[in-house]
Amino acid sequence: MLRTHTCGELNISNLGETVTLTGWVQKSRDLGGTTFVDIRDRYGLTQLVFNTDTDAALREQGRGLGREFVIKVTGKVLERSNKNTKIPTGEIEIAVEGIEILNEAKIPPFLIEDDTDGGEELRAKYRYLDLRRAPIRNNLILRHKMAQEVRRYLSDLDFIEVETPVLIKSTPEGARDFVVPSRMNPGEFYALPQSPQTFKQLLMVSGFDRYFQIVKCFRDEDLRADRQPEFTQIDCELSFVTQEDILNIFEGLTRHLFNKVKGIELNEFPRMYYADAMRLYGSDKPDRRFGMEFVEMNDLVKGKDFSVFDNAELVVGINAKGAAGYTRKQLDELTEWLKRPQIGATGLIYMRYNTDGTLKSSVDKFFNEDDLTNWAAAFGAEQGDLILILAGNTDKVRKQMNELRLEMGTRLGLRDKNTFAPLWVIDFPLLEFDEESGRYHAMHHPFTSPKPEDIALLDTNPGEVRANAYDLVINGTEIGGGSIRIHNKDLQGLMFKHLGFSKEEAQKQFGFLMDAFEYGAPPHGGIAFGFDRLASIFAGLDSIRDVIAFPKNNSGRDVMIDSPSTIADAQMTELKIKTTV
Amino acid sequence: MLRTHTCGELNISNLGETVTLTGWVQKSRDLGGTTFVDIRDRYGLTQLVFNTDTDAALREQGRGLGREFVIKVTGKVLERSNKNTKIPTGEIEIAVEGIEILNEAKIPPFLIEDDTDGGEELRAKYRYLDLRRAPIRNNLILRHKMAQEVRRYLSDLDFIEVETPVLIKSTPEGARDFVVPSRMNPGEFYALPQSPQTFKQLLMVSGFDRYFQIVKCFRDEDLRADRQPEFTQIDCELSFVTQEDILNIFEGLTRHLFNKVKGIELNEFPRMYYADAMRLYGSDKPDRRFGMEFVEMNDLVKGKDFSVFDNAELVVGINAKGAAGYTRKQLDELTEWLKRPQIGATGLIYMRYNTDGTLKSSVDKFFNEDDLTNWAAAFGAEQGDLILILAGNTDKVRKQMNELRLEMGTRLGLRDKNTFAPLWVIDFPLLEFDEESGRYHAMHHPFTSPKPEDIALLDTNPGEVRANAYDLVINGTEIGGGSIRIHNKDLQGLMFKHLGFSKEEAQKQFGFLMDAFEYGAPPHGGIAFGFDRLASIFAGLDSIRDVIAFPKNNSGRDVMIDSPSTIADAQMTELKIKTTV
């Protein structure tokens, strides 16, 4: 190595040693007759010193070092007079005896510091410089540690990591595929996998028993903060298991990661039925860092001539504890916030439980003090609380109230990034009706098994059929989901039929899997974790961008390498394709 | 779990326990009044027994179990009277008390045994059944162990695994890219990476210091046994290192893998200059499990009026030890073998050193006994040896002699799959002249640095410039290669110029990298291992196919899932492309 030590390892035990360090110039400053230069690498920061004892030319060279110059320095480890207890190398400094400039650097377009002055676009263009900043670099180191621990944990449980193909076959279910024209098979295309779902199931048919893979997956969907066209899954499948086994093993994995990577010991994960999650939180991924559960008020409010309530399918409220001090202006502003098209709630009704014990609602015209007292009791409200109420169509109003609950949680400081509230949501519906296409879609995917006792409902009431499906939710984010799969050809065929596939379509797309089920397919099930999301939660980030080394922007572009880009006509000719732009 | 134990773990210590096993019916047989059924899973094989003590109906059910049925059985662990010492469970059997058929199985299209009767195509179509066979499954388990050990070894050395993007930018250098049309950026394409080369270099610019990744790469090239359109690399890069550091670290990794995964302790790897490898073996990846080095004979053979030798640029021979007994017919057959178009050698000359001490050549007309004695001395030949000689253009004759040497090594049994002969080949040429395009190409890739002392030759004699490049060869297969990279913008620009790039082209394709070099790029270098090849060598296979779970055939097709395939017109419309087939 060009160095004897990294910039993070020298301390008082090295006093007097002659060492060679390599790294980047973080900053330099002159204090009286002394020049200090901080040299940085991935491992830390070390202070170099050039003082009156230093050769004059060398000191001049030290003063001339620009920010981000790459240097190699040799010198002696001295004890600092002015110690910095915040960093491991803070007790020592290096009295420089020689410098070699390994590479110069132009002035970077933004500050390479924990807090930078660079805007998002500039930092994206110079991602390689943004990655020099400790907060971003540490996210990737954290991610690495997580991946290592995932592999260790699963390997110790006899899971085998098997690489499944990236060039596969396009299927009509699910999101849009990215496709790859085949030169050797003109007119035909590969697709990039949205998940290795069918392959991992085939591995179970092959008897692999326990499979996992940390694997890139691809979806050609419109993008937002927590979506990227390519993303990474921790993909797992097991044979001869029940849902209970899977929940236990992967709860174990999650707790192991929190323990090993973050030093946090989590309690047993609570479990909640999907139906209860929708009723109490209006969401299949409730943020359980705080309570503020929904209270359904139909029985309390109907028949009092208030048409908004009387005409509503559902009247539902939450108790924002301690928020009775909200002013009229604040409540108006909240009402406006709810009206935004993303939420679309038309009217917010509230009741203050004032600190003097009085109750005051925005619908006092229709409800008397007894009514309001009953409301307060239903919410377990105390003096100082604020009840917020929405009314309307059940599905819509639950969604709106979910948004309001999360917003109030944020405003009341109940969503601390260092608190982790995991939750298993179980018993998802098998199917959901899609208004646009007028047919049922698989809520998870077409390979999810229905609960045996609900199979009969498939013909009569498909929307009521529950699946052997489960999601792992942390802090309101779905970080994993899976199911016990269908392993029987007839049941799989029935499922495709209910999803609107003709027999021929099903055979053409998934014939290989249904055929495989006829040659001795074991009962099996699995789960996939969104690794980017899990890492972002561990890193305390809202977006997955900064746990990805080279992410794409909202247009799917990598602005650093300027991709996608046009390709040569010769390439297209060879692939026998043309663009029609 | 549906089972209490796997099929590989019960032994004499479990006698008397009531256990539940799940797995596949391997085979069943009736012996007198007793029915034996072998049940198999990934972990092993256990014998089930139904005898006269067994309930008659249950025994009937046992006799009715077909091959590959998936079953769950409960029973008691008994000591076998007839023990099988070859398997860990061979001392016990299970007296069955209950069977549940979890899934039936049609008769498989080929035998699910170590030696199968299925042809290659049939097995490819039913890959999920072929994967049930222990030899194939064990390859993938071996591969998993190797990957785990790679990660452990490198992580312990402070390497960080960073995922680089799969959707990148098409570049004109190297092999053909697979491309992916971008829906959000119509008319533009992503490319799939042939390697993460530029990204890993950018990570060095970012200060990651030590990076690795086990990563899928893609090349749209015509296929053969050891090539797949998607393949896996162990990709590594380090900063502030010399070539010596890299050779040491990755020799350490390779030895670690051999030790941990195969229990083999390898000696220090020898090193050889590229020029010597070409001179002594006619190949940059010599198989060093055996000697049979080339002996150049120009000084010995010229000027004796044998025009074939006199007109040849190079006359070169090998000593096939102990092969003097080769008959005229065998030698004629070898001459024919050499004439095949893949090799294209026109004439084989030989000299036998007979066991009676006489020397006899196929060119006795031109060379007397003294000449032949000199030849024998040059080859260190002994009684019983056979000298084989080719003559012609240096490059061609070396290639031909390389083929002949390997063939003779095989025929003489010198290429044992359980012997491992690693070799570092160093000091590769930087450039090689390509007759077709009439210009120099990068022998490794355009980011490889020239030896500083050879830079001046770039203008005068580019073919003589040596690179800081190295390959790791095992048993004649290149399993890894890398270089110390260029980290200076001007030198990188010069390199692109010599590769025939205009300034504009270089900027358009690789501007982001050259820009990065201006912001403080550290000296760096790296290596990439072909993980499929390494795994195939560990598994003792000639092809990489069976260390890949779902490989493609020579037309790039996955015949199991029938991919690539046509896609819907609507998909193409959305992507704004058309096929021109």
From TrEMBL, chains A, B:
Q: Does the keyword Ribonucleoprotein apply?
A: no
What's the chief localization of this chain? cytoplasm
| Family statement | Belongs to the class-II aminoacyl-tRNA synthetase family. Type 1 subfamily.
Name the source's superkingdom. Answer: Bacteria
The residues listed in the UniProt record as binding ATP, with positions renumbered to this chain, are: 219-221, 228, 478, 530-533
Q: What does the record give as EC number?
A: 6.1.1.12
Protein name (Swiss-Prot/TrEMBL):
Aspartate--tRNA ligase
Q: Where is the Aminoacyl-transfer RNA synthetases class-II family profile domain?
A: 142-551
Entry's Gene Ontology molecular function annotations: aspartate-tRNA ligase activity; ATP binding; nucleic acid binding
Could you give a single Gene Ontology term from the biological process aspect?
aspartyl-tRNA aminoacylation
Checking Gene3D superfamilies in the record gives: Bira Bifunctional Protein, Domain 2, GAD-like domain, Nucleic acid-binding proteins
What is its biological role? Catalyzes the attachment of L-aspartate to tRNA(Asp) in a two-step reaction: L-aspartate is first activated by ATP to form Asp-AMP and then transferred to the acceptor end of tRNA(Asp).
**Cell location:** Cytoplasm
Q: Where is this region: Aspartate?
A: 197-200
Q: Which residues form the signal peptide?
A: none
Known CDD domains for this protein?
A: AspRS_core (cd00777), EcAspRS_like_N (cd04317)
Pfam families (UniProt xref)? GAD, tRNA-synt_2, tRNA_anti-codon
* Subunit structure comment from the entry: Homodimer.
Q: Which reaction does it catalyse?
A: tRNA(Asp) + L-aspartate + ATP = L-aspartyl-tRNA(Asp) + AMP + diphosphate
Alphabetical list of InterPro entries matching this protein? Aa-tRNA-synt_II, aa-tRNA-synth_II, aa-tRNA-synth_II/BPL/LPL, Asp-tRNA-ligase_1, Asp-tRNA-ligase_1_N, Asp/Asn-tRNA-synth_IIb, AspRS_core, GAD-like_sf
Indicate whether Protein biosynthesis appears among the record's keywords. Answer: yes
Question: Which spans of this chain does the record mark as coiled coil?
Answer: none
Enzyme class name: ligase
Keywords on record: Aminoacyl-tRNA synthetase, ATP-binding, Cytoplasm, Ligase, Nucleotide-binding, Protein biosynthesis
Residues holding L-aspartate: 173, 219, 444, 485
